[in-house]
Amino acid sequence: MEQASWTLSWAGGTDKGKVRQQNQDTFYIDPNGRYMILADGMGGHSGGEIASQRTVDAVQEALDAIDWSAAPNAQAIAELCVAKANHSLQEWVDDHPEHADLGTTLLVWIRTANRVYLVSLGDSRIYLYRKEGLFLLTFDQVIENELRKKGVSREQAARSQGAAYLSRCILANRVCVPDVLETKISHGDVWLLCSDGLTREVPAEDISAALDSVKVHGPEACVESLIHKAVDNGGRDNVTVVVAHFAD
Asked: Most exposed of 61, 84, 179, 207 (fewest Cβ within 10 Å)?
């Protein structure tokens, strides 16, 4: 297996914002820097918080059980994470039918050897800042975007019923297929996982500038800066930010 020596630093933070009464976002960073998880829950009063927490817990348990000494199969890991999360929500809804509509987005970032694997469901996002450029690597899985992928015009897709609704996510009653990507690690890479509470409030150029500052000020300062910007710009939703930086 291809080997490389990398120093990885990371930080994460979350804020309920100015409008929401609860924070229904959840994130987790593996203490060994092998993976990061982010979930943005939905499902009425307290349901979203339950969905995101149970999903993150289930994915963490699944990832901690895999053999990290072997070269991983990204698709198999993605399917395992989604299946575990789905089963966890099914168990909850079986005992709490009043939460039948709960669900959550899911992002999983996995590092092994010289590669990073990404798993995505919903409209939370993963960005890569590399060599002075910001790249959005995930696809916002909402009805409008799915229709446009099928060739529907921008105008027709925007006018479609439920255009802004999630087309794929973690649910109790349905298993959705995640997007799975992989890329090689490059020196200086800065990764961002975030809920839409960030991207709806903070423009891409400000996100890019914050990630560019990581090499000087570190991930923790970047996380704090982006969360403060999102809250100051309106804070209409919960905002969660996780940042990781690779150096030799």
From this structure: 61
